[in-house]
Amino acid sequence: MSNWYQQINKTTGSILAKIQNQPFIKELMQGTLPKDVFQFYINQDALYLAQYKKVLALVGIKCRDENETQFFLDAATGIIHVENALHQHFVNADSFTTIASPTCELYISYLSRIAHEKSIAVSIAAVLPCFTIYKQIGDYILENQTNKDNNPYQEWINTYGGEEFAASVEQAINIANKYAQTAHQEELEMMNQAFLKASQLEWMFWDSAYRKEQWEI
Ligand SMILES: Cc1ncc(CN)c(N)n1
């Protein structure tokens, strides 16, 4: 019998396929993504991660097992080190904005609400696509690209396709599966909804970056 993650990953497989087909991902893989679009993405991602790490810390505090708490606290500080370093590499300080785009605002507000109001099982389900989708996209690009030696975005690709990230993604999946095992039916349904919504928001995040989404008013 398949576990919770295998089932929800299958159910949301069409979202992953749509992300792989987004122009942002295709051009990132080819190395042809316009620099200003990538800058916009990295800027918004820095704003996203600043909040995401707080959500991870909160999830860690809610865990029932101290090793799980440690995992989420380490993941939060890992973001500070690994992803901040990535941003240092790519961010253009002169054009950096502290204003989150509508989609970035929506994603971080959603995660924060879930982590503050819902159970630990549902909270983990909501933060999980941030691990799993980036891993799947990193692997997808690494497997399909033909320009590893001259892609200006290779450092980004290697971060998410790399083994170190894979280990933490696997641990996050295992913890989610563990909480799913003891979740009652209604809670399982909420876990599925949270994973689905966060996956949709991952699609929206890249889409909004490609369009350099602005507040319309
Ligand atoms: C929006 C988003 N989602 C996920 C990740 C990978 N931690 C990220 N950097 N940004």
From TrEMBL:
SUPFAM superfamilies: Heme oxygenase-like. Residues 19-211 form the Thiaminase-2/PQQC domain. Keywords: Hydrolase, Thiamine biosynthesis. Pathway: Cofactor biosynthesis; thiamine diphosphate biosynthesis. One of its GO terms (cellular component) is cytosol. It is an enzyme of class 3 (hydrolase). Its EC number is 3.5.99.2. Pfam families: TENA_THI-4. One of its GO terms (biological process) is thiamine diphosphate biosynthetic process. GO terms for molecular function: thiaminase activity. InterPro entries: Haem_Oase-like_multi-hlx (IPR016084), Thiaminase-2/PQQC (IPR004305), Thiaminase_II (IPR027574), Thiamine_Salvage_TenA (IPR050967). It catalyses: 4-amino-5-aminomethyl-2-methylpyrimidine + H2O = 4-amino-5-hydroxymethyl-2-methylpyrimidine + NH4(+); thiamine + H2O = 5-(2-hydroxyethyl)-4-methylthiazole + 4-amino-5-hydroxymethyl-2-methylpyrimidine + H(+). Catalyzes an amino-pyrimidine hydrolysis reaction at the C5' of the pyrimidine moiety of thiamine compounds, a reaction that is part of a thiamine salvage pathway. Belongs to the TenA family. This is Aminopyrimidine aminohydrolase.
